[in-house]
C-alpha cells in the first residue's frame, strides 16, 4: 500500500515537470468534396507533383536542447566525431588562417542566360541576395579515451532478479577507467552529474578495462525495476535536463581509482544521456539523446557527421571512389561538412565557391550556417 | 576550343555516363563541344510513352555545376530553383525519365494538354500513345 501510493505520487511529480504542450489547433474545416472531373481512383495522387524534393533529414534531436552552460563553454559550437580506437573528436575555431571569408562581398550569381521563358519559379529564383556570412572553421583533433557505442547500449533483464534490468554496452577505451550509471540525472557544473532520484536508485560506479569493442554489463543485483516508472517519464528528458539514463564513463589513466579522489584537470569523460522506450515487442530500448565529452576542462557535444565514414580512405584513380569524393568537383576528397545539417560532402575549394553562390547545403538544401573542414587523413597518419 | 579547360567534374561525369549508362538513358558529348550532349531517353514501360525514343539536347553552362544544365523547356524544379551542385547529368536525366512516368499537369508546358489530361485522362493517355508512335518511334 505504501509503495503504491508513493508510486502514484511519483507519477504526478513527473507530470508536473513536463513542458506544457500547447493544445493542438482545431482541425481544418472539412472541404466539401469536389466533383472530380476525372476518375480519381485511377490517379489518387494526381495533384501531387512527383518531384517534390526529398524531405530534409529530421533535425537531429540533440539540437533541440541548449547545451548546458558550463564555465568553459564559451558559445563556440563544438564538434566531435568519435573514432574507434583512436577517437578524435574535433572542433573548429572561426577565422583560423583561411581568411577568404573576410574578402570582398560575394558577387551575386551570374544572370541566368537564355530560357527566361521558363516559369515564374525560375525568374523568382534569379533574385538572389548575397549569401549571409558563413563561418568556415578548421577542425582540431582531440583524442577520446573512452567511447561508448551508442547503438549498443542495452537493458537486459537480470536473470536472478527478473523484475530488474541491468545496463550493458559495448565500448572502446585506450585506458582503464570507471563507469557510473545514473537514473534520472541532471548535469551540474563541469560535467558533474547527480540523480534526482537517489532514494530509488543510488548511482553506482564500476571499473572497466581498456580495449576495443569490449562489453560491459552491470553485475546481477545492481539493476533497476523499470516498472516502477511510467513509460512517459522514461521516454523523455524531464524539462529537457533530467535524463532517464546517464552513463558516465571516466578514463582514469593507468593509476586508478579508489572511489572519490584523484580528479585532476586531465580527466577525460564521455557521458551518454539517454531515454528509455518500450519497443513493439515490449522490450526496453535505450535511445541516446546526446553524448558529451569532457576533455582538458572543456565540454563538447558529440555529433555524427553524415558522409565521414566513406571519406577516410584516400581517393585512388579508380572509378570506385564515389562516396569519398566531393559532390561538386567529383575529384578531391571531401573534407568539409555543412552545419547544422552535418553533411560532409565537399572539398574545401568547392565549399568556398559554393559559399559565393548559395547558402544551401548541396545534399539537403538546408541553409548553411557553418562550414567545417575535417581532414580525416591527417589522423590516420599519426596513429 | 571550348574543350580546353574542361573541369574535371565534367570529364568524370562524361566518362561515367559512357561507361555505366543509366537504364534507358544515353548521353554522349558532342565532339565539337564537350559541354553539349545528345541525349536519348526511352519511354518508360507502363507509361503512354513506352516504345518511344525521346531526344534531348543538354548543355552545361559555364557556371555548371553551380548552375543547372540547360535542357530546353522542361518543367522540372531541379532545373530551376531546386538545382543543387550535388545533382549531375545522370540524376537530371533520371528525373526527366521519371517525369515521363508521372506527368505533372499542374506544372504544364502546354495548358491545353494539361487541361485535357485533367478532364479526360484516359483519352489524353491515348493521344500520348498515338503521338509517341507517330513522332517518337525511333530512328
UniProtKB/TrEMBL annotation, chain A:
Chain intervals for the UniProt region annotation (Disordered): 1-50
Keywords: Lipoprotein, Metal-binding, Myristate, Transferase, Ubl conjugation pathway, Zinc, Zinc-finger
Catalytic activity: S-ubiquitinyl-[E2 ubiquitin-conjugating enzyme]-L-cysteine + [acceptor protein]-L-lysine = [E2 ubiquitin-conjugating enzyme]-L-cysteine + N(6)-ubiquitinyl-[acceptor protein]-L-lysine
InterPro entries: LOG2-like_mRING_C3HC5, MGRN1/RNF157-like, MGRN1/RNF157-like_N, Znf_RING, Znf_RING/FYVE/PHD
Alphabetical list of PROSITE patterns matching this protein: ZF_RING_2
Transport in keyword set: no
EC number(s) reported in the record: 2.3.2.27
Domain RING-type: 326-365
GO terms under biological process: protein ubiquitination
Comp. bias regions, Pro residues: 22-39
Matches recorded under SUPFAM superfamilies: RING/U-box
UniProt-listed SMART domains: RING (SM00184)
One MF term in the entry's GO annotations: ubiquitin protein ligase activity
Pathway membership: Protein modification; protein ubiquitination
Family (UniProt): Belongs to the RING-type zinc finger family. LOG2 subfamily.
Protein name from the UniProt record: RING-type E3 ubiquitin transferase
Annotated source species: Dendrobium chrysotoxum (Orchid)
UniProtKB/TrEMBL annotation, chain B:
Native species: Dendrobium chrysotoxum
UniProt cross-references to InterPro entries, sorted A to Z: UBC, UBQ-conjugating_enzyme/RWD
UBC core domain: residues covered: 5-137
Entry protein name: UBC core domain-containing protein
PROSITE patterns assigned: UBC_2
Signal sequence, start to end: none
CDD domains: UBCc_UBE2N (cd23813)
